Amino acid sequence: MENFFKWIGKEIPDEEVIIWFNVHNMNYEKIELYGDIFKTLSYLIQDTYLGEENHETKISLSVEDKELHFEWCWAKMIENFAKEKIFIESDGEHKKYLKNFFGETFYNQQDKNIKDEVFVFVDQVFEVNKKFSKADLDILTEIYKFMEKNVK
Fold first, then answer.
1. HSE value, Cβ hemisphere, 13 Å, CA-based, for 24
2. pTM above 0.85, yes or no
3. What residue ranges do the domains of the chain occupy?
4. Would you say residue 31 has pLDDT above 50?
5. Which of 147, 128, 146 is nearest to 137 (CA)?
6. Mind giving me the DSSP string for 19-57?
């Protein structure tokens, strides 16, 4: 297992990253666009979420409230990009992936440190001027491919 973690986290030379992008038909402009979509959704979720239990009011959101919050953020993000003539399908594997991602890492996460790191991760996953690991490329490629199918 230790060898697997070393392999998955090992930095990949820049030349191999370029080959990876070419093999998977990924271009930098679309990586940036898809990153902007992911980040916009992330910022909307973070900035408008009221579900943290407040010690004064003891308010916490139900599962249904969390789902409704995600749906509102999703619709708002789609609306914002449509104003820029970038059209995102409202349903599909991209939405399912992002809903599950934010559900597991933010909405249902009990550890505040992990919850805070989600937004750092979202910023970093689309950064192309960095050293990539195999894990970074796998995540970026997966997101890229389902966004490719659902963004016009």
1. 22
2. no
3. 2-150
4. yes
5. 128
6. HHHHHTT--HHHHHHHHHHHHHHHHHHHHH---SPPTTT
